[in-house]
Amino acid sequence: MLGVVLMLVAAALNASASVLQRRAARDEPRSRSFSAGMLLDLARRPAWLCGILAMLSGFVLHAVSISLSRIALVQPLLVVELPFTLLLASWMFHLRLGSRDWTAIVLQTVGLGVFVGCLSPAGGDPGAVPAGTWALAIGLTAGGVVALVLLGRRARHQRRAAFLGVATGAAFGLNSSLIAGVGAAVGHGEGLFTTWQTYVVMVVGPASFFVLQNALEAGTLVASQPGFTLTNPAVSVAWGLAVFGEQGRTGWFLVAALAGALLVGAGTVLLARSPLLDPDASSARAGSESRTGGGRETGAVPDRRR
Predict the structure, then answer these.
(1) Contact 169, 235 (CB under 8 A)
(2) How far is CA 136 from each of CA 32, 161, 231, rounded to the nearest angstrom?
(3) What is the b/e burial string over 109-135, where b = at least 16 CB atoms within 10 angstroms of the residue's CB?
(4) What Å distances lie between residue 51 and 33, 151, 201, 234, 271, CA to CA?
(5) What pTM value is reported for the model?
(6) Residue 122 in 3-state DSSP?
(7) Which pLDDT band, with edges at 50, 70 and 90, does 4 fall under?
């Protein structure tokens, strides 16, 4: 139970980090993508620094949660990061949640509860996974991340943000699986700095962070956040079931779990189309309607960039 609570708090902190970092990164010239100069410029923005603090806090709670619980149980809870992001974006960018947004949040919440409750994974031990299996799983996941990053670099605007968002989610899912391996090794009596997974996390973690910053800079949260939110737990659940040997319920429980996953997907699709994840366009549209009298007031106000 503690692991579940910690993961929910981590999701809220991650949502805060995404909104704050997007607020800072949207003013960064796209010509500086994938450059150290971009990070140095962002480091001078208070919103970005607050986002990093929230992200690091979420990472710590995330790591503790994975160490206390099975990864296929707690990692899916990260999908609540998207509704948290909407709620925070509505507050920060002075926009209102519409009926479709609330419907999507309910669908996602109910679906997540059904999925986690019915799947209810048991067993599994990351510490018992052979080195060869670790190497194969890491290679396949990392290869997928690299392919998505290359596709993102060739794409433009929102397509770039979408590809990089999925790549970020896969990278963080890999990182979470490695953290589970660290926790298992420490639980079996190894030292934190004597297990090889710790040093791989030191590489994968910063690389994931770098891809995330480029995803946020490339386009709106509409494009990047859904892919990141869904791919992260999807990769982790796949690792838990296929690599760590965790076993979910079968029969009708599995059918119900799949139905819950479909509800989560439907809610995510609706949330991804919310204007709250594109505050610039929403504010401009609201301002235009206010000036022309062509629509009702939404309470949105133009967001002033620094």
Answers:
(1) yes
(2) 34, 28, 19
(3) bebbebbbebbebeebebbebeeeebe
(4) 19, 27, 21, 24, 22
(5) 0.75
(6) strand
(7) confident
Contact by Cβ (8 Å): 211, 149: yes
Cα separation of 296 and 53, whole Å?
Answer: 38
Q: For the range 24-31, what are the long-range contacts, defined as Cβ-Cβ under 8 Å and sequence gap of 24 or more?
A: 24/48, 24/51, 25/213, 25/216, 25/217, 26/216, 26/217, 26/220, 26/280, 26/305, 27/305, 27/306, 28/217, 30/217, 30/218
Structure tokens at 14: 């991650």
pLDDT tens, residue by residue, 85-127 = 888 878 877 777 788 888 888 888 888 889 888 988 888 889 9
Q: For the chain, give the percent of residues with pLDDT over 70.
A: 84
**Which pair of tokens denotes residue 144?**
């997928």
Q: Are 277 and 87 in contact (CB under 8 A)?
A: no
- Two tokens at 256? 């119900």
- Residues belonging to the chain: 306
